[in-house]
């Protein structure tokens, strides 16, 4: 009999079906055995009655066993309907059970709340929890919606290299890789230089890229490997054009995720992000003035949280743009607005910077001068500078951190929980302090 997805069982009431999936929960009630089954589409309750041919096979079945189950789809009695559960109005009366794969006894209930190290040490198991599946279903939808919005805005997708010959940020901490001919390559800290090159061919481009930062930071917001959703666009007037394109993408993404995952927001007890009529925009100086704090070259985490509270209170927006950062504090390719401040911006979301962008320098001579000004050698950027030698339009772009966006969307306490397999200064799958003794 052909497999039926659990999500389609509501259309099969009264029929005998075959489902395949995992045992999510087992409950013994007198001589009856109840199971909650799950597959990629949904969950459903199944019951093995005392006289069923399946009762013997059901005796040894444990949580996370992989089964092929045959049964009849029945409507539940009105008093047993659970309106808040998936398939809460139906039940599968099981007649046959075939074990496809057994599972050992779990080290802890997979939906039990555990500390972060335990969660990550047991990632192959904890991913199967409702919380784990929720987080990464939302994250997948963020990527889909962000990509769809950029396509709608006429951006072209491209794949940026992960192995590069130099540092795109001009001073970021990098991971070195032994390469051919006794050369050193680096893991990319950003797709930035390649985005700009691509503007010369396609005008508007985006890439969703893995990047690597060798920063020795052990905070709730830092990772050594992360996913950046980058775009770059040509023929702009200034950075405000980039900010408008970004705001459209963020609005489209939040709207789509909210429509697809209202149940997840409910389970996590978090509100759908507020978008307001328009994301408020403050210069860095205005932000500090609004908070009544002395001017600085950047915003502290406390200031980021406080200005986001202001944006929500005054503009009904969980998002706020901060502009006009000092040029010296931004990447070398950032256009200056005047002698001291740049045409760069950050987008803050619920107290955390999730995006950074800018108008870029587009004239060859100015770019070479800036590289020299930063104490770097233009010859090391020769490949990149070709794009500026042969005509580069005024352009700009930005980069959104996927894990940070997910973290704040769902109100998570640590960015590592929003990362499938996080890498940081202490961990590659397992804690590095335990790596030598691991299997």
UniProtKB/TrEMBL annotation:
* Residues annotated for ATP binding in this entry: 213-215, 221-223, 353, 401-404
GO terms for biological process, alphabetical: aspartyl-tRNA aminoacylation
UniProt-recorded Gene Ontology molecular function terms: aspartate-tRNA ligase activity; ATP binding; RNA binding
Q: What is a single Pfam family found in this protein's UniProt entry? A: tRNA-synt_2
This protein's GO cellular component annotations are:
aminoacyl-tRNA synthetase multienzyme complex; cytosol
What's the Enzyme Commission number for this chain? 6.1.1.12
Q: InterPro entries this protein is in?
A: Aa-tRNA-synt_II (IPR004364), aa-tRNA-synth_II (IPR006195), aa-tRNA-synth_II/BPL/LPL (IPR045864), Asp-tRNA-ligase_1_N (IPR047089), Asp-tRNA_synthase_2 (IPR004523), Asp/Asn-tRNA-synth_IIb (IPR002312), NA-bd_OB-fold (IPR012340), NA-bd_OB_tRNA (IPR004365)
In terms of superkingdom, the source organism counts as Bacteria
Binding sites annotated in the UniProt record for L-aspartate: 169, 213, 356, 360
Q: Where does the Aminoacyl-transfer RNA synthetases class-II family profile domain start and stop, copy by copy?
A: 136-422
Q: Return the Gene3D superfamilies for the record.
A: Bira Bifunctional Protein, Domain 2 (3.30.930.10), Nucleic acid-binding proteins (2.40.50.140)
Region span, Aspartate: 192-195
Q: Say if the entry is tagged with keyword Protein biosynthesis.
A: yes
* Reactions this protein catalyses: tRNA(Asp) + L-aspartate + ATP = L-aspartyl-tRNA(Asp) + AMP + diphosphate
Name of the top EC class for this enzyme: ligase
The subcellular location is: Cytoplasm
Its keywords, alphabetically, are: Aminoacyl-tRNA synthetase, ATP-binding, Cytoplasm, Ligase, Nucleotide-binding, Protein biosynthesis
**Main function:** Catalyzes the attachment of L-aspartate to tRNA(Asp) in a two-step reaction: L-aspartate is first activated by ATP to form Asp-AMP and then transferred to the acceptor end of tRNA(Asp).
* PANTHER family named among the record's database cross-references: ASPARTATE--TRNA LIGASE, CYTOPLASMIC (PTHR43450:SF1), ASPARTYL-TRNA SYNTHETASE (PTHR43450)
Q: Which family does it belong to?
A: Belongs to the class-II aminoacyl-tRNA synthetase family. Type 2 subfamily.
* HAMAP family per the UniProt record, alphabetical: Asp_tRNA_synth_type2
How is this protein organized at the quaternary level? Homodimer.
The name this protein goes by in its record: Aspartate--tRNA ligase
Q: Which organism is it from?
A: Candidatus Kaiserbacteria bacterium CG10_big_fil_rev_8_21_14_0_10_56_12
* Chain's gene name: aspS
């Amino acid at each position: 009999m052909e497999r039926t997805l659990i999500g389609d069982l509501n259309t099969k009431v009264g029929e005998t079906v075959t489902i395949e999936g995992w045992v999510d929960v087992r409950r013994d009630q007198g001589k009856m055995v109840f199971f909650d089954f799950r597959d990629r589409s949904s969950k459903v309750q199944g019951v093995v009655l005392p006289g069923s041919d399946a009762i013997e096979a059901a005796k040894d079945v444990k949580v996370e066993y992989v089964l092929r189950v045959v049964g009849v789809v029945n409507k539940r009695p009105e008093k047993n309907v659970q309106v808040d559960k998936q398939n809460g109005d139906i039940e599968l009366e099981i007649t046959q059970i075939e074990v496809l794969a057994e599972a050992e006894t779990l080290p802890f209930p997979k939906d039990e709340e555990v500390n972060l190290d335990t969660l990550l040490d047991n990632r192959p198991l904890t991913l199967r929890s409702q919380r784990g599946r929720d987080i990464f279903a939302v994250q997948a939808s963020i990527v889909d919606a962000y990509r769809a919005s950029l396509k709608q805005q006429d951006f072209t997708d491209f794949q940026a290299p992960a192995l590069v010959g130099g540092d795109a940020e001009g001073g970021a901490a990098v991971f070195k890789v032994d390469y051919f001919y006794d050369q050193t390559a680096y893991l990319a800290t950003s797709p930035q230089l390649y985005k700009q090159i691509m503007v010369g061919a396609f005008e508007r481009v985006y890439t969703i890229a893995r990047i690597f930062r060798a920063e020795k930071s052990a905070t709730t917001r830092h990772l050594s490997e992360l996913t950046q959703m980058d775009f770059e666009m040509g023929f702009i007037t200034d950075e405000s054009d980039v900010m408008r394109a970004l705001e459209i993408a963020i609005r489209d993404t939040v709207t789509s995720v909210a429509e697809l995952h209202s149940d997840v927001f409910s389970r996590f007890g978090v509100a759908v992000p507020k978008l307001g009529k328009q994301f408020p925009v403050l210069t860095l100086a205005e932000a500090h003035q609004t908070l009544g704090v002395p001017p600085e070259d950047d915003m502290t985490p406390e200031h980021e949280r406080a200005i986001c509270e202001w944006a929500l209170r005054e503009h009904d927006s969980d998002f706020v743009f901060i502009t006009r950062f000092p040029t010296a504090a931004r990447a070398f390719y950032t256009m200056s607005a005047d002698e001291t401040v740049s045409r760069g911006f950050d987008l803050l979301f619920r107290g955390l910077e999730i995006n950074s962008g800018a108008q870029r320098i587009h004239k060859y001579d100015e770019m070479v001068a800036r590289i020299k000004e930063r104490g770097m050698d233009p010859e090391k950027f020769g490949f990149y500078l070709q794009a500026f030698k042969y005509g580069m339009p005024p352009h700009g772009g930005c980069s959104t951190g996927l894990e940070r966006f997910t973290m704040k969307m769902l109100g998570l306490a640590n960015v590592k929980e929003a990362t499938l397999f996080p890498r940081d200064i202490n961990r590659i799958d397992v804690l590095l302090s335990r790596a030598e003794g691991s299997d």
